[in-house]
């Protein structure tokens, strides 16, 4: 990340992270730096606590708040809710690139390995034998994310994560802007869109 990109990110998240306090608050730049280093290197929060001379509980809170601020500042621009136009484009790309008709995306879940959170017991312990949270995503024909849901507990099944996700619920209730069934190419058979 270049210094200009770092400054731009700090500028975007500043409204979400600016604190008012009687004591001197930890600056937005320091919050972003600690979080980016934590995410990039996979160190423990404890090591970032030592690196930045910030209390352990404070660094946990900073990382959580900063990740949330980054999401709030960037998701509408880089990962907006898919519109009907987006789905139509994905359908065309899957047909052109993979000869897969009426496909609105490739859906899968991935376990992201984590260190066991304190006092979590088996909350994040999955069937594969490690602690994790789940990233569920839909990609277009070019492997680009068009929707994600992150943070469900490791032992939950893909079906359970999908059923509880905002997109899964909107598709179940027919409020997800999914295109109507289309003719299967070369036939007169109408088929619904598929994941």
From TrEMBL:
<keyword id="KW-0479">Metal-binding</keyword>
<dbReference type="GO" id="GO:0016787">
    <property type="term" value="F:hydrolase activity"/>
</dbReference>
<keyword id="KW-0378">Hydrolase</keyword>
<dbReference type="GO" id="GO:0005634">
    <property type="term" value="C:nucleus"/>
</dbReference>
<keyword id="KW-0540">Nuclease</keyword>
<dbReference type="GO" id="GO:0004518">
    <property type="term" value="F:nuclease activity"/>
</dbReference>
<protein>
    <submittedName>
        <fullName>Protein ANTAGONIST OF LIKE HETEROCHROMATIN PROTEIN 1-like</fullName>
    </submittedName>
</protein>
<keyword id="KW-0539">Nucleus</keyword>
<dbReference type="Pfam" id="PF13359">
    <property type="entry name" value="DDE_Tnp_4"/>
</dbReference>
<dbReference type="InterPro" id="IPR045249">
    <property type="entry name" value="HARBI1-like"/>
</dbReference>
<dbReference type="GO" id="GO:0046872">
    <property type="term" value="F:metal ion binding"/>
</dbReference>
<dbReference type="InterPro" id="IPR027806">
    <property type="entry name" value="HARBI1_dom"/>
</dbReference>
<comment type="similarity">
    <text>Belongs to the HARBI1 family.</text>
</comment>
<feature type="domain" description="DDE Tnp4">
    <location>
        <begin position="107"/>
        <end position="172"/>
    </location>
</feature>
């Amino acid at each position: 990340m270049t210094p200009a990109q770092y400054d731009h990110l700090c500028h975007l998240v500043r409204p979400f992270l600016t604190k008012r306090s009687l004591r001197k608050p930890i600056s937005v730049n320091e919050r972003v730096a600690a979080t980016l280093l934590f995410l990039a290197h996979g160190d423990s929060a404890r090591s970032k606590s030592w690196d930045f001379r910030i209390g352990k509980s404070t660094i946990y809170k900073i990382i959580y708040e900063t990740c949330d601020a980054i999401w709030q500042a960037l998701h509408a621009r880089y990962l907006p809710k898919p519109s009907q136009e987006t789905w139509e484009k994905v359908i065309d790309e899957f047909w052109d690139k993979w000869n897969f008709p009426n496909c609105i995306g490739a859906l899968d879940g991935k376990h992201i390995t984590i260190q066991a959170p304190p006092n979590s017991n088996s909350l994040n312990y999955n069937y594969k034998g490690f602690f994790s949270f789940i990233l569920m995503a839909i990609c277009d024909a070019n492997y680009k994310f068009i929707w994600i849901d992150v943070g469900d507990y490791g032992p939950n099944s893909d079906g359970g994560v999908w059923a509880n996700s905002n997109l899964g619920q909107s598709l179940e209730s027919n409020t997800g802007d999914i295109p109507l069934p289309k003719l299967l190419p070369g036939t007169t058979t109408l088929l619904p869109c598929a994941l």
